[in-house]
Amino acid sequence: TRRMNIRDVLPFFDGKKVNLARALGISKAAVGQWPNGELPELHAIRIKYEILPEAFGNAPKQSGRKSKAA
Questions:
Q1: CA-to-CA separations, 6 to 3, 32, 67, in angstroms, rounded
Q2: Whole-angstrom Cα distance, residue 60 to residue 50?
Q3: Longest distance between any two alpha carbons in the chain, whole Å
Q4: Torsion sign, CA atoms 40, 41, 42, 45
Q5: What is the dihedral of CA 31, 37, 42, 46, to 10 degrees?
Q6: Considering only CA atoms, which of 11, 12, 46 is closest in space to residue 26?
Q7: 46, 65, 64: which is closest to 56 by C-alpha?
Q8: Which residues contact 28 (CB under 8 A, 6 or more apart)?
Q9: What is the pTM of this model?
């Protein structure tokens, strides 16, 4: 399986590594240390399922029920 690369996700963060780093709660320097721009697996999973699920087809399914206002 192809690993997620920084080029895949930077467009969602205005093309800035600092914005990606903030979203992940890490430093920009840490992002710069990824070999060949490949995201570590844990960060890739967080982006795919927690931070940007809609961008990767992983958005939560809607139940079809409307929530009632309190």
A1: 10, 10, 37
A2: 10
A3: 50
A4: positive
A5: 80
A6: 46
A7: 46
A8: 17, 18, 21
A9: 0.78
Residue 57 DSSP symbol: T
6-61 pLDDT tens trace: 999 999 999 999 999 999 999 999 999 999 999 999 999 999 999 999 988 887 76
Owner of token pair 């931070």? 51
Q: How does DSSP assign 8-36, residue by residue?
A: HHGGGGTT-HHHHHHHHTS-HHHHHTSGG
pLDDT score for 68: 56
Cα gap 17→55, rounded to integer Å: 18
Could you tell me how many helices (H) and strands (E) the chain has, helices first? 4, 0
